[in-house]
Amino acid sequence: MPKRTRRQVFRVGLAVATGILMVALPCVAQQLTNNELSLTVNAQEGSYQLTLHDGQAVLRSRVAAQVDHQWLRSSDYPRHQASESTFKDDLGPGREVTVTCSGLDGKPDLVYVLQLYKQRPYGTVQVRCKTARERK
User: What does residue 61 show for φ and ψ, rounded to 5 degrees?
Assistant: First the structure.
């Protein structure tokens, strides 16, 4: 096989492997930690758990929003995608996981952001609905 063809096959194989990993990663639980707390996000279930550093569970929850007198729960959505990033605000820096729950016909996406401060023993939970217009 010529060298150029081998390079092309390698590039295609690399692209396929990267694509598979990108699809598989959103289903894996993600974890944020600091000296006091650990926050584990299970995007596949649409839930999260907050534990103390020693492993004692403090809170296990999912998120929901009431839209037109109907509760939309994160666990009701067929698709969940999570992404991790950093943030910094007046209280300091930290890490955050943004989970987008989507796929319910005629219903807005449910987006929640879980933040854990790097040097403080607390975090935040923010929930919002994302309409079809906002998705574009």
Answer: -155, 165
Give this prediction's pTM: 0.74
What is the SS3 assignment for 83? strand
Closest CA to 86 of 47, 55, 116: 116
How far is the C-alpha of 116 from the C-alpha of 61, rounded, in Å? 16
pLDDT single digits (tens) 94-122: 999 999 999 999 999 999 999 999 999 98
Nearest in space to 115 (alpha carbons), one of 100, 96, 99: 96
Q: Are strands 123-130 and 37-42 parallel, antiparallel or unpaired?
A: unpaired
Report residue 70 as tokens: 């109907």
**From CA 56, how far away is CA 4, in angstroms rounded?**
56
Residue type, 57: A
Are the C-beta atoms of residues 39 and 61 closer than 8 Å to each other?
Answer: no
Selection from 37, 51, 30 nearest residue 118 by Cα: 37
